[in-house]
């Protein structure tokens, strides 16, 4: 029809049939003639006119009144919009406590769920169920799916990342635990991951003990223990061990309870080189007698001893550091700042590899370090020998050989921090006691206290020890700027993740209002413990700090906000940070606010470039620097192309410290991504150009040298990882990255980046916790994920022979005789043509690669891995996840070939004479 007036006139008829006919016709043409129909809206409130007028609330009201006549299956814009408004309104009512829900509204939502089930859109049903908090529909959508395991994995990922309300998240996770347990083959791995989020150590201990007592499930218990060490906090692991001791069913000969199979928390650790290869007694046929031995092995895994030893073996074995990069940088630098940067770059390149060859080969150059530069150089040894637990004292003493005995005061005072770097975050009591006693004895020497505070903070990180906290607080109250700076950082490290200690953490902030030292005040941000699972408990404190006049305390509030909401993607926190980034009058506060965006968004790195794209073009260089760091934090190790496109223009920024940040962040983004080889090569060439340019600024050179160390970190075998493989926030890595950003003020803090470095490896273990010789198939060409080619030294060009001058008279005479001008006079030379050999055609590159155990596997390569056909071993969990994988031996009766452990220390210099022998005991010489 051209007009709707004729149909509208039928509404004035008395016959009901005519009115129904008119309404149906108007319903079909309302999208085209809604303006004309709106003049008679009082006659036809049933139709979609309110929707076209923009009155969605009235349109929703009449849609609810239509009841079954409102068909949710019709594929129209009107139906989709009304359903969206209906779900939003229903969600709002469900989240309000005590709010009455209209039965008609709930009926429409139920029909929408039914539509999802009929169409097979179970993921959409899960999303709607989580939004509306309908646990009945949530469980129904998972159970009704064809692939229940995939739906459970999707649901757990959504629950852990997108659900903001903590109470409702706990309810969802407990429902997932129940569903995992009710599977035909219970998924204990993912069940325990949910229990970690629930902070339920007792249930985890029950699962582990049940697996140990079961037949053929011991390997699954070991696999879960490895995942627990990677994902859980030290406090959680300690509570799991305590619960296992209480539940251990073993008994001794007298029938008394025996839990000696589980090692105590402060037990002395084994050597790192033998931890992965030490033989362990095999399980016996009877489950009950084998439990103590199995519990002892399980406790060893939970303590981290096995994981640390395996990672150390992998890094030593796979070290591909290019020393020529460091040599060229060393030859190019000519000032103390670049000297310190080169030492830091060397420590990052060799992080965890135990190889100090570069330092031993350049002792004279290293001896140029004085005062605080020597302080930094000694601490770098702790990064090189990271997690090498024994003998940590001998590694600290090695610094005296490398740096010399002359002017060793700063070297001695940095030893505590170097020791802590070796055992950082593991809470070893022998290290803690040694460092704490050194800190107490040296209260008169501020340099010793500075290194001691950093060392204690690292060694006791996240242990919540009150004695350590009180000692650090005592150091802070001495009003010593140098020692107080380190004490502020160490207090935050010790109380990291504490919920109970939040009121105590306010003490430094109250004390900061009377501080006279600006140096100490600016480090108090780290004294606020991060509470990632309960951010609201310190939100009031943060909001109060944002209102103070002192810009240093406002900057501390930005860091506290970043730690409280790290990885959450919380919209409220993002809005608050963006407001401060564009409104605060202090450049340092604005820079810290932009950097904090990276910490909040690192779980969804694809969102960060869009958030900071405008800030990266700000007129304020501090904001541009902060946006570069935010991109590096959120997109670390991802190779995000959008982030790299924003960073590349910053390498030519007119402000030198912006170039510095861009160079460092580009190195973090390009780590081990052979897929972007050209971009990596261009970045490496840019770094080399900046370092070798004599006229470039020192700040830009500092960033380029640090970028070289980050690009090849850990022998080109590690990446910056703020999330574990299972999706949990790695708080040690997050804190390490936060403190690393403070190298802006204090160069030694760059060593904290080593906390965020995680090995990119695949390690396969047997039931004896030993590495068998096996191969894993990678479905990519070997060159796709190969190590970058090492640099080649430039060879001196040979001098070319000078052509003999020929006189014009001689040339004329030769031409008359028909002789060649180039041949010597009086000699007839026979030209000898070299035999041409056919060039060998290069062999075509295979489409796959066999990786030996342990293997370097980068993140994009994981999805291409599979066990070869006919393999003797069967993995307990999917190897595409990476990390440490337990293997079941299908041919246990045959002898197996194991990977031999390698010795720590790496290659040594030719001139290395080893450790100096001890002097003889005092004696008296008697002349007879």
Automatic annotation (TrEMBL):
Bias (Acidic residues): 910-928
Biased composition (Polar residues): 251-262
Domain 26S proteasome non-ATPase regulatory subunit 1/RPN2 N-terminal: 4-319
GO-annotated molecular function: enzyme regulator activity
Gene Ontology cellular component annotations, sorted alphabetically: nucleus; proteasome regulatory particle, base subcomplex; proteasome storage granule
GO biological process: proteasome-mediated ubiquitin-dependent protein catabolic process; regulation of protein catabolic process
UniProt region (Disordered), positions on chain: 251-280, 813-854, 892-928
Gene3D superfamilies (UniProt xref): Leucine-rich Repeat Variant
Alphabetical keyword list: Proteasome, Repeat
Pfam families recorded: HEAT_2, RPN2_C, RPN2_N
InterPro entries registered for this protein in UniProt: 26S_Psome_Rpn2 (IPR016642), ARM-like (IPR011989), ARM-type_fold (IPR016024), PSMD1_RPN2_N (IPR048570), RPN2_C (IPR040623)
Domain 26S proteasome regulatory subunit RPN2 C-terminal: 761-899
The UniProt record lists the keyword Membrane: no
Aminoacyl-tRNA synthetase found in the keyword field: no
Compositionally biased spans, kind Basic and acidic residues: 830-846
Superkingdom assignment: Eukaryota
Recorded family membership: Belongs to the proteasome subunit S1 family.
The protein's name in its UniProt record: 26S proteasome non-ATPase regulatory subunit 1
Source organism phylogeny: Eukaryota, Metazoa, Ecdysozoa, Arthropoda, Chelicerata
């Amino acid at each position: 029809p051209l007009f709707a007036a004729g149909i509208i006139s039928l509404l004035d008829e008395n016959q009901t049939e005519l009115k129904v006919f008119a309404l149906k016709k108007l319903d079909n043409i309302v999208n085209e003639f809604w303006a004309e129909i709106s003049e008679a809206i009082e006659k036809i409130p049933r139709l979609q006119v309110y929707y076209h007028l923009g009155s969605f609330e009235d349109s929703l009201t009449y849609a609810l009144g239509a009841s079954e006549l409102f068909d949710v299956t019709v594929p129209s814009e009107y139906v989709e919009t009304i359903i969206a408004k209906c779900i939003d309104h229903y969600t709002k009512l469900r989240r309000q406590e005590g709010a009455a829900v209209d039965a008609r509204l709930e009926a429409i939502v139920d029909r929408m769920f039914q539509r999802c089930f009929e169409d097979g859109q179970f993921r959409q049903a899960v999303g709607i169920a989580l939004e509306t908090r309908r646990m009945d529909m949530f469980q129904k959508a998972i159970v009704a799916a064809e692939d229940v395991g995939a739906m459970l994995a999707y649901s757990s990922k959504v629950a852990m990342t997108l659900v903001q309300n903590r109470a409702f998240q706990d309810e969802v996770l407990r429902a997932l635990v129940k569903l995992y347990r009710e599977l035909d083959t219970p998924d204990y791995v993912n069940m325990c991951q949910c229990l970690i989020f629930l902070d339920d150590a007792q249930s985890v201990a029950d699962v582990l003990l049940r697996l140990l007592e079961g037949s053929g499930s011991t390997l699954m218990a070991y696999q879960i223990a490895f995942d627990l060490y990677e994902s859980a906090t030290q406090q959680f692991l300690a509570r799991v061990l305590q619960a296992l001791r209480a539940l251990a069913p073993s008994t001794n000969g007298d029938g008394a309870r025996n839990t000696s199979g589980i090692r105590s928390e402060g037990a002395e650790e084994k050597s790192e080189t033998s931890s992965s290869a030490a033989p362990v007694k095999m399980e016996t046929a009877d489950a009950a007698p084998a439990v103590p031995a199995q519990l002892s092995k399980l406790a060893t895994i939970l303590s981290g001893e096995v994981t640390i030893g395996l990672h150390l073996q992998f890094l030593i074995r796979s070290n591909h550091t290019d020393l020529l990069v460091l040599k060229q940088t060393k030859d190019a630098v000519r000032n103390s700042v670049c000297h310190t940067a080169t030492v830091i770059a060397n420590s990052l390149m060799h992080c965890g590899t135990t190889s100090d060859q570069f330092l031993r080969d350049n002792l004279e150059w290293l001896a140029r370090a004085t005062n605080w530069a020597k302080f930094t150089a000694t601490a770098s040894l702790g990064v090189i020998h990271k997690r090498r637990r024994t003998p940590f004292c001998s590694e600290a003493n090695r610094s005296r050989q490398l740096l010399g005995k002359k002017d060793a005061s700063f070297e001695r005072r940095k030893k505590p921090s170097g020791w802590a770097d070796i055992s950082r975050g593991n809470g070893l009591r022998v290290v803690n006691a040694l460092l704490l006693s050194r800190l107490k004895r040296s209260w008169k020497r501020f340099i010793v206290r500075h290194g001691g505070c950093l060392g204690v903070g690292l060694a006791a990180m996240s242990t919540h020890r009150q004695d350590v906290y009180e000692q650090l607080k005592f150091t802070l109250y001495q009003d010593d700027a140098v020692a107080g700076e380190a004490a502020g950082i160490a207090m935050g490290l010790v109380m990291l993740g504490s919920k109970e200690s939040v009121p105590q953490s306010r003490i430094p902030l109250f004390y900061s209002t009377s501080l006279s030292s600006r140096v100490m005040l600016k480090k108090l941000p780290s004294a606020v413990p991060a509470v990632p699972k309960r951010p609201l408990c310190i939100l009031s404190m943060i909001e109060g700090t944002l209102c103070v006049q002192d810009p240093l305390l406002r900057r501390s509030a930005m860091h506290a906000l970043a730690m409280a909401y790290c990885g959450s993607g919380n919209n409220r926190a993002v809005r608050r940070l963006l407001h401060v980034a564009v409104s605060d009058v202090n450049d340092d506060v604005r820079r810290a606010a932009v950097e904090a965006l990276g910490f909040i968004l690192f779980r969804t790195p694809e969102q960060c470039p869009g958030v900071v794209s405008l800030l990266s073009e700000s007129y304020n260089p501090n904001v541009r620097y902060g946006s570069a760091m935010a991109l590096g934090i959120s997109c670390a190790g991802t190779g995000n192309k959008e982030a790299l496109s924003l960073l590349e223009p910053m390498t030519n920024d007119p402000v030198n410290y912006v170039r510095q940040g861009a160079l460092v962040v580009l190195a973090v983004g390009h780590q081990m991504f052979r897929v972007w080889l050209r971009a990596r090569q261009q970045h490496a060439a840019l770094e080399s150009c900046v370092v070798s340019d004599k006229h470039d600024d020192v700040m830009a050179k500092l960033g380029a040298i640090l970028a070289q160390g980050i690009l090849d970190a850990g022998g080109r075998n590690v990446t910056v990882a703020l999330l574990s493989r299972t999706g949990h926030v790695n708080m040690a890595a997050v804190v390490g990255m936060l403190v690393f950003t403070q190298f802006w003020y204090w160069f030694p803090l760059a060593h904290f980046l080593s906390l965020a470095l995680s090995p990119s490896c695949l390690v396969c273990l047997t039931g004896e916790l030993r590495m068998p010789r096996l191969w894993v198939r990678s479905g990519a060409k070997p060159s796709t994920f190969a190590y970058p080619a090492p640099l080649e030294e430039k060879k001196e060009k040979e001098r070319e022979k000078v052509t003999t001058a020929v006189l014009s008279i001689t040339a004329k005479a030769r031409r008359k005789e028909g002789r060649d001008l180039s041949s010597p006079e009086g000699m007839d030379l026979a030209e000898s043509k070299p035999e041409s050999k056919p060039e060998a055609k290069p062999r075509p590159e295979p489409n796959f690669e066999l990786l030996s155990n342990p293997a370097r596997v980068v993140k994009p390569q994981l999805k291409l891995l599979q066990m070869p056909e006919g393999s003797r071993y069967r993995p307990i969990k999917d190897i595409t996840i990476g990390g440490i994988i337990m293997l079941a031996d299908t041919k246990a009766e045959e002898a197996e070939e194991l990977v031999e452990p390698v010795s720590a220390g790496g290659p040594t210099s030719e001139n290395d004479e080893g450790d100096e022998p001890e002097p003889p005991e005092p004696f008296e010489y008697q002349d007879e």
